[in-house]
Amino acid sequence: MKRFLLFTFCCFSLLAKSGHASAQVTAIGPVTLTVRDLNRSLAFYQDILGFRKIADTEYLGRQYEELEGLFGLRMRVATLRLGDESLQLVAYLTAGGRSIPEDARSNDLSFQHVAIVVRDMDEAYRLLRSHGVEHVSTAPQTIPADNIAAAGVRAFYFHDPDRHNLELIWFPPGKGQPKWQHPTNAAGLFLGIDHTAIAITRTDSSLAFYRDLLGIQPKGESWNKGAEQAHLNFVEGASLHITGLRAASGPGVEFLQYLYPAPGKPYPADTRADDLWHWQTTLYTNDASTLFTQCAKMHRTLVSTGLVTFHDTNGKDAKCFIVRDPDGHALLITEKTD
Predict the structure, then answer these.
(1) In contact, 185 and 141? CB cutoff 8 Å
(2) What is the secondary structure of 180-232 as a DSSP string?
(3) Residue 310 and residue 317 in contact, taking contact as beta carbons nearer than 8 Å
(4) SS (H, E, C) 56-72
(5) Model confidence over 239-280: pLDDT tens digits?
(6) How far is CA 9 from CA 81, 148, 251, in A?
(7) How many whole angstroms from its chain centre is CA 177?
(8) Are 240 and 259 in contact (CB under 8 A)?
């Protein structure tokens, strides 16, 4: 299989909630964003945010059309590295693809971001200001002490050139993953990707999919509200139930359920992979065929036309497909052959 679909992670086995062995996710891989101008986006992510490009390849052909659900595609995919984590930028070279609406808000169900961990929030914010980066938050916000789970965490939302939402996040001692307190490259300003966050309708429905079917385990939750949260998300009066989940390795997945105001606009039902609000999160499994069958039984919407098999240079096969979660977010579920 091509580099775009394969990365090396540790594997582990999980049991489904029912107690029966089940094909489930072994690791979370890169998050992929659809962009308009790949060269422009590369300059932004590399020159401002410190990502390092490790691959830049074009793809076309029947298997990729079936995987992405788009006829006649030709796409350029760049893989970027920051710390231990990866991000992928995809530009479709064939015509098509709609822009993120100007009135998109953080509580709309199409909302997704990646949270980039920083060594120093004030320094990182000054750097973004010097490059004229568009704010979402009014300024970096500090979670107040009465929110025990997240007290002292500092965060800031902003836009990339295509108006994708990104987050800077700083963890005080005792918060976040241990590695953010002891980063390998302490001199770097941008350290890696902690998680990808998605707006959801109901936490229980999302847990039924991500935890019970896919096996990605909850690791904590918090209820965030107040002036700081409202100014962070740029949603007046925002009150959220936030749930963090992780697999054995890779970045986490974070649910953002808006208790107030209610969840915003639904994920557009006619979304295509070349629309700029289309993100997809890579999930690794040892058995994509079984997960494909289980997703079909749950009547989950597919982006792919079916289960797609890729052949790597060593003659091994790996199956994969792209499916939408209960609120429309796309997940690339793929096997690895090494």
Answers:
(1) no
(2) GTS-TTTT-SEEEEEEEEEEES-HHHHHIIIIIIT-PEEEEEEEEESHHHHHH
(3) yes
(4) EEEEECHHHHHHHCCCC
(5) 999 999 999 999 999 999 999 999 999 999 999 999 999 999
(6) 15, 33, 12
(7) 17
(8) yes
